[in-house]
Amino acid sequence: MAAQKVLPIVVILTATAAVSACSGGGDERFEPVRATGRAALAGTGYTSDQLEQALLLDVPGYQRTGEPDSGEYGALKAVQNSAQLQRQARLDKPRCAGAANSSLRAVDAGLPAAVATFSRGSGQIATETLVAMPTEAAERLVGNRVPVGCATFRTRVGAQWSEHQIVETPPGTIGEGSRTVGITTVSGNSHTRAWYVTLRGRRYLATVSLYGPNATRADAELLARHAYDQAQRILP
Q1: With contact defined as beta carbons under 8 Å apart, do 37 and 44 qualify?
Q2: In 3D, which of 193, 201, 196 has the Cα closest to residue 228?
Q3: Whole-angstrom distance, CA of residue 145 vs CA of residue 84
Q4: What torsion, rounded to 10 degrees, do the Cα atoms 65, 70, 74, 75 define?
Q5: By the 8 A CB rule, do 220 and 180 touch?
Q6: pLDDT digits (tens, 9 = 90+) for 22-65
Q7: Start-end of H helices in the chain
Q8: Which keywords accompany this UniProt record (predicted)?
């Protein structure tokens, strides 16, 4: 597989840890975030239609890639594609697999969600995902950390090996609390960076990812602030 095909897989493997229930100490037990707010019952959550309306309409310098997708979390194309890509990748540290792909186990597939993707000619891709959930659950997920010993790892897709290094910043203040994680990937002659920011708002969790050869933390966090502002304007 070509190097440019490896990067999205690695970003998916890493970025999905943003909604992981893994504890930072390597504990492999996961406590699912259940869909108690699935249909905005008693005003405790949002519908997928509301979340789609709260997504960013545009990102300066980027073009929207297709139409936004919304519905139950497990039914989103991006989630289904990530699950398929995760199955293709092999890690040199199997014990770190929980940090890479636990989101599909940690977040109930029935939770309302929406996602939009943007791209630009430099090979950079930005993605925003909103998932409705109780405030306490969102707070717990934002508070997670990369497990000890999993800051560096290697992945293999087919015959192609890639090396990755994760940088996790201190807890942030975007929205009602945020988490920023960066990853540098070296695959053959390809050297690419990715950043993702997870933040919580009123009864929802937002994840903004930015990856490409020129992706920066500052740009990812700026995009996350715009995403939060937009959601706050739209969601009651």
Answers
A1: yes
A2: 201
A3: 24
A4: -80
A5: yes
A6: 333 333 333 444 444 344 443 448 999 999 999 999 999 999 99
A7: 3-15, 48-53, 77-88, 97-101, 103-106, 135-142, 217-234
A8: Signal
